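retry 2 of 3: previous attempt timed out while embedding zinc ion. Reduced batch size to 1 and resubmitted. Inputs unchanged:
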Amino acid sequence: MKRQCPDPECSTRNSSPKTKGLVRKGTYFRRSDGQRISRYRCRECGKSFSSGTLFSCYRQKKRKLNHPLELLLNSGVSQRRAAILLRVNRKTVVRKFRFLAQQARSEHEQWLKTLETRPLTSVQFDDLETSEHTKCKPLSVALAVEPKCRKILGFQVSAMPAKGHLSRVALRKYGPREDRRSEGWNTLFEKLKPVVSPTAVWLSDKNPHYPRHLHRHHPEASHRTTPGRRGCIAGQGELKKIGFDPLFSLNHTCAMLRANLNRLFRRTWCTTKTKQGLIDHLSLYVNYHNRMLTPTGPR
Ligand SMILES: [Zn+2]
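retry 2 succeeded.
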């Protein structure tokens, strides 16, 4: 439980121990999780507060749902079904989904900070395609993975124009769509600068645009490529037919994304409605994937 004055300008915030100048001011029963919470008063500024004041779920009335909802949303359950299973309103699920995504993002940032002391020497990267609302509006997810433990280092979602026979339909129905994939790659490579060694080995497929973006941000890095392969089953592009796949960690991670996020399933009713929704869901999953679904051994 956090015990410090909630006023950021209060002088007790900078003193150590931070509990100096605080006096107990009774307790109250928190109905949302059945806990008895202590209250305190700051002698310096006279403000009173509780040990729950500085927590991120302060003032939430359904804090008990946060953890089960995180598990459901990372296990292929749709937001609507999660609302039914947890017996809450759909709007509650949406609000909690956004809150949890924000939490997951800051946890991921903190985790990345811990990597800065020992920068990575190898990274795999590629993109995964999905769409918002209709196949005519595709989205590209740029993804970078640490190959030994399959930790996801970062991702960027960017719009791209439709390809193939849909390109004409898309143009007629929705007008021209900008290709923002270059921006996405630039942002991702820039973000990874502190956690990846300048001379690291980057592995990807033979996409002709990759070397340009990579070398702009990591000029000393060595870029290795491997030819793209066909998937083993039609519609399962991630799992390759060949015995040894040099890009295994990345392809396996993409397969896990496709298996665990209902909006990324192949042939699903659930689709991404907004780009931000996809970003939030990916943020939520990335944190769960790195914490719970991948080994934590030495790198
Ligand atoms: Zn104070």
